[in-house]
């Protein structure tokens, strides 16, 4: 039976957001929070998490307080809400004292629907919140509370105190990624063990997952961009800051609009590069994991990894930034032997006790298993999060099924070589051991007498690439271990089982290197395939108008209208405001603001150049102060990362 609250919620959904129905668990989650209850929400990126706290914040008395680690993105989130006619604001260190006072005054006067705060500044703002009417607390990116997770933020640990200080205010914690163990930890640390848990499907069917052996990673990346996603936005993740800089410079030299982003850049450069990525078309951002959380850009067509992620959770979170608009997108990873050696060494040499290192090793083992699987990657990815599925038909292992083969004998040859070197009290890395197996006559080989080993030249039936694949897969299966700074190969308990003939070694056959091969991807489209002819032309005219309009307002283009909404307008070709209002994603505020211009473009009576500069507001509301370079907590990666850690800056809010 529908209640008055249900009717109000549906009215807000249509009038403000321009939708006529909820997706998945959205309706149940919103009803739970609107009725004053707590909730823990696990929903994939692009699944509509924001509506789950935005609508209750509008419907319930008071202001919804959103706790988010994304200071540098708060202004973009606020601007997107303002486009919808929602009264939103943020408090952080990018504002002047006068701007902060204006926002505080609006909060205390009951003039805000939503207020964004960073978790480390909550204690500073607690006194202010005590004097305001709070509708709810939304804890975004709730996985940051998990101490053994991929993105731990220490300041999230204090958020369990929210219920103690404001016991009558409902709380909703949201995340796009969490295993069953992480879900339990989130609930315990935030005091939400009694709250209902809403778990949506983790599947992102529009994303094509591909993992390729690393042969010439830059050339492979260039083929991905130029042959599959030319002129489209993407993110390239690298492990170190130096790699980020070098990759951005190299892509720029190849004619790609690429920008770097990492915690070592000054705040102004980070803010400028992030703003360009969000507001311009076709920018490729090369970055460490310091970049990406909370990025709402819906038309990111690919996410590429040039280094092995540390965990499946991190990989899923990062690849989930592609294709938020539901259109075909690519998640591509180049992965090689050195990645395995490097990650193992980072865990061994890193900070933390034995328990933390065991947890990190388990995360890495799961990631390696995903890389080496011969079955559907999506099945294995979803199974990690506790979800069973059928083979997807849209990953590399489904589209080009790999062969498996019995690699026991080659494995025994390799292990025997390591044993013989050990008998001489010598240890070497993979390259030299492969040279021995391949029988390569080098000065170093002769100097050390390794050409006299009984295993010298017994592996000439396989090439260097195949042998490196064997080493990589044996490391992944823990049939080898990498020891010390230089990646010296050593034996494990599993190695001895193989040598004794007690264990079969099944391996994935290395694919042949094909010059210029672009992979198995379907070509991504800017607009849905059903838009052809006149519909496609109209869609492009609307995109041109949207870009010009966004530039005038200094907001990202997707804040004006998403690609999905533009495609729906192009397909419907509305003739009047009533028909335009029926298009999904066109709420009342956007109908009032843009309706006449859009209808003129649809009818062909107006160019798609956007409004003149005079259309810009003469003054901005207090809820959206002028942009200043942002120094934000989200720019600092988790402390476990030795390449990128910096202490968080001391901010006011």
Automatic annotation (TrEMBL):
Reaction(s) catalysed (UniProt annotation): Couples ATP hydrolysis with the unwinding of duplex DNA by translocating in the 3'-5' direction
Enzyme Commission designation: 5.6.2.4
Domain annotation Helicase C-terminal: ranges: 220-370
Gene Ontology terms, MF aspect: 3'-5' DNA helicase activity; ATP binding; DNA binding; four-way junction helicase activity; hydrolase activity; metal ion binding
Residue stretches making up the HRDC domain: 532-612
Any Gene Ontology biological process: DNA recombination
Keywords assigned by UniProt, alphabetized: ATP-binding, DNA damage, DNA recombination, DNA repair, DNA-binding, Helicase, Hydrolase, Isomerase, Metal-binding, Nucleotide-binding, Zinc
Gene Ontology cellular component list: bacterial nucleoid; cytoplasm; replisome
All copies of domain Helicase ATP-binding, residue ranges: 30-196
Stretches for region Disordered: 604-653
Name of the protein this chain belongs to: DNA helicase RecQ
Source organism (scientific name): Pseudoclavibacter chungangensis
The encoding gene: recQ
């Amino acid at each position: 039976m529908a209640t008055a609250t249900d009717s109000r919620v549906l009215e807000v959904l249509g009038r403000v957001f321009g939708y006529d129905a909820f997706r998945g668990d959205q309706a149940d989650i919103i009803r739970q929070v609107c009725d004053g209850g707590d909730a823990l929400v696990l929903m994939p990126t692009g699944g509509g998490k924001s509506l789950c706290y935005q609508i209750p914040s509008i419907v319930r008395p008071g202001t919804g307080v959103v706790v988010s680690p994304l200071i540098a993105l708060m202004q973009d989130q606020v601007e997107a809400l303002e486009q919808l006619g929602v009264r939103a604001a943020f408090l952080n260190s990018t504002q002047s004292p006068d701007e902060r006072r204006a926002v505080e005054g609006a909060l205390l006067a009951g003039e805000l629907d939503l207020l964004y705060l960073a978790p480390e500044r909550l204690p500073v703002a607690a006194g202010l919140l005590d004097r305001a009417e709070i509708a709810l607390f939304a804890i975004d990116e709730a996985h940051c509370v998990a101490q053994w997770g991929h993105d731990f933020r220490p300041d999230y640990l204090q958020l369990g105190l929210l219920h103690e200080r404001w016991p009558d205010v409902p709380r909703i914690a949201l995340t796009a990624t969490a295993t069953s163990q992480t879900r339990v930890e989130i609930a315990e640390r935030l005091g939400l063990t009694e709250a209902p848990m809403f778990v949506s499907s983790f599947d992102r069917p529009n994303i094509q997952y591909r993992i390729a052996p690393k042969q010439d990673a830059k050339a492979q990346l260039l083929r991905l961009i130029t042959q599959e996603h030319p002129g489209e936005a993407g993110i390239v993740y690298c492990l170190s800051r130096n790699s980020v800089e070098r990759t951005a410079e190299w892509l720029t030299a190849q004619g790609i609009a690429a920008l770097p982003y990492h915690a070592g850049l000054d705040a102004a450069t980070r803010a400028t590069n992030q703003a360009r990525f969000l507001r311009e078309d076709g920018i490729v951002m090369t970055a460490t994991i310091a970049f990406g959380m909370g990025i709402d850009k819906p038309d990111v067509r690919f996410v590429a990894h040039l280094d092995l992620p540390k965990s499946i959770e991190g990989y899923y979170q990062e690849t989930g930034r592609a294709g938020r608009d539901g259109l075909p997108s690519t998640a591509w990873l180049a992965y090689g032997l050195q990645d395995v050696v490097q990650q193992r060494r980072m865990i061994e040499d890193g900070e933390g006790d034995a328990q933390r290192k065991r947890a990190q090793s388990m995360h890495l083992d799961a990631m390696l298993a995903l890389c080496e699987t011969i079955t559907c990657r999506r099945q294995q990815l979803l199974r990690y999060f506790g979800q069973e599925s059928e083979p997807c038909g849209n990953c590399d292992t489904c589209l080009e099924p790999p062969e498996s083969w019995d690699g026991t004998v080659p494995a025994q040859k390799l292990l025997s070589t390591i044993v013989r070197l050990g008998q001489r009290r010598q240890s070497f890395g993979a390259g030299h051991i492969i040279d021995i197996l391949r029988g390569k006559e080098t000065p170093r080989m002769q100097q050390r007498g390794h050409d006299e080993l009984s295993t010298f030249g017994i592996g000439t039936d396989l090439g260097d690439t195949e042998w490196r694949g064997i080493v990589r897969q044996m490391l992944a299966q823990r049939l080898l271990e990498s020891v010390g700074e230089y990646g010296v190969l050593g034996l494990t308990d599993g190695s001895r089982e193989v040598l004794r003939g007690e264990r079969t070694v099944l391996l994935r056959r290395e694919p042949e290197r094909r010059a210029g091969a672009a992979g198995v991807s379907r070509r991504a489209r800017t607009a849905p395939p059903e838009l052809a002819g006149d519909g496609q032309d109209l869609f492009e005219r609307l995109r041109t108008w949207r870009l010009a309009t966004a530039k005038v307002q200094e907001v990202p283009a997707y804040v004006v209208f998403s690609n999905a909404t533009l495609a729906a307008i192009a397909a419907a070709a509305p003739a009047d405001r009533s028909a335009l209002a029926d298009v999904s994603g066109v709420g009342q505020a956007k109908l009032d603001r843009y309706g006449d211009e859009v209808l003129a473009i649809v009818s062909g009576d107006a160019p798609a150049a956007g409004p003149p500069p005079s259309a810009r507001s003469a003054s901005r509301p207090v809820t959206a102060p002028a942009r200043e370079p942002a120094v934000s907590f989200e720019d600092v990666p988790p402390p476990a990362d030795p390449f990128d850690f910096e202490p968080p800056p001391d901010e006011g809010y």
